[in-house]
Amino acid sequence: xxxxFSIYLDLVRFTAACLVYLYHSNQRLLINDVLPASNFGxxxxxxxxxxxxxxxxxxxxxxxxQLATYAASRISRVYSVALPAVLLTVILDAVGRQLYPxxxxxxxxxFLLRGAASLFLLNEVWFVSITSFxxxxxxSICYEMWYYVAFGLLMFLPKRTGLIAIALxxxxxxxxxxxxxxxxxxxxxxxxWQRLQAISxxxxxxxxxxxxxxxxxxxxxxxxxxxxxxxxxxxxxxxHAQFTFSKFFPSDYLLGALVFLNFVGMRKVSPxxxxxxxxxxxxxRFLAGYxxxxxxxxxxxxxxxxxxxxxxxxGHAYWWATTAMVAASVxxxxxxxxxxxxxxxxxxxxxLLRVEIFVHQxxxxxx
Length: 367
What we know:
Blueprint: H1 3-25, H2 41-62, H3 67-99, H4 111-119, H5 141-156, H6 159-173, H7 175-179, H8 181-192, H9 201-220, H10 223-235, H11 237-242, H12 249-269, H13 274-277, H14 281-288, H15 291-309, H16 317-336, H17 341-366
Helix pairs in contact: 1-2, 1-12, 1-14, 1-15, 2-8, 2-12, 3-5, 3-15, 3-17, 5-6, 8-12, 9-12, 15-16
């Protein structure tokens, strides 16, 4: 993966996280005016899925070539932020609800169930949908972690065993998580399909420009809402609602394909843009390093700070003050969680390697 393309992916990652923040903070109790670019929340998650597939395919090809290393990296990546997010959400919601109850139209009950589901990433299995208190965006990590598991089974188990294990996993997590898996797989295809790297530069520019206008047209025509309305009429409102965050999957496939084509083209032409991208590498890498913290913490944080400040939504000052406090909180929390996850990774990897050695020795002794 060339450096310019890697920087571009990090820029896309951070931008998508900011768009998700805009989407969720676009609340009339916080600001009367509709925020610009505040309708791309779900679309940004689709971008994350494609991007995640690219990154996981890359790191298993270049660095994480052992099961223990891969597992430790994925577990530490998720839980270094997910665990603090679950704990902080409960605390922040408890305080914020006392300060400004009207802000909180989110569940705050069944603590054992919601906490356990969130910690084990089971919030969206089958037709269950357990909101992690006010942390609505938490749903996507409950999809993505199972994609990590499935990919690890395929990579590190014998092929036949791995395919059987993936089939069993798909049955265990159910149709909602499985429905969006092809979008994540697009990222793996992007990295592994060598012929895509052999396209000409002219074709690559066509893909970049065409996908850009395609993504704009996708949102301007409100295709997601159109497809959702058709699906609802086709299968009925009750079943449509049961799919919760996966109910837009037909239009999500199209958007995922457009993002895929954009990445295919940008990988080829990004060296042409390195004079613009390379000088921005340090700030982009820095900001991208806090993306997961921003994504998993922004909703409980902005609700909490909005409750603390309790300003006037008629202007923009209230939203900007809240946003500034969210940014400061994300960097402070991320510095001791996401930014230090290598320590957790090292600890987990050491223990997994011991288990691996023990299992191997027992296997040798029993033969």
